[in-house]
Amino acid sequence: LDDGTTRIRLPSGSKKIVKSSCRAMVGICGGGGRLDKPMLKAGRAFHKYKAKRNCWPKVRGVAMNPVEHPHGGGNHQHIGKASTSKRDAPAGAKVGLIAARRTGRITGGSKD
Length: 112
Fold this sequence. Notes:
4 strands; mainly beta
């Protein structure tokens, strides 16, 4: 049109009038639904995180030896002490629930 507007036809078939000075991309973003499919195999997770950073697999602290983690060691897989740690704990000791305000089960829900 000559008054500085343009008529575009959308994929739905409807027509829309916009300013001619506007810039936009019409459509949907590619690659949608990629996260919906399960990975199914550890090998696929391995290759996924190999391209990103070293954060896989995550090994629990209780499954480690005591030289590797403060939760490690013992004859059974248990933490053995309180899992909370203070905010100013030294590096290496700051594991578990860091500066926890509260722990345990939440009881006494709100009355609505």
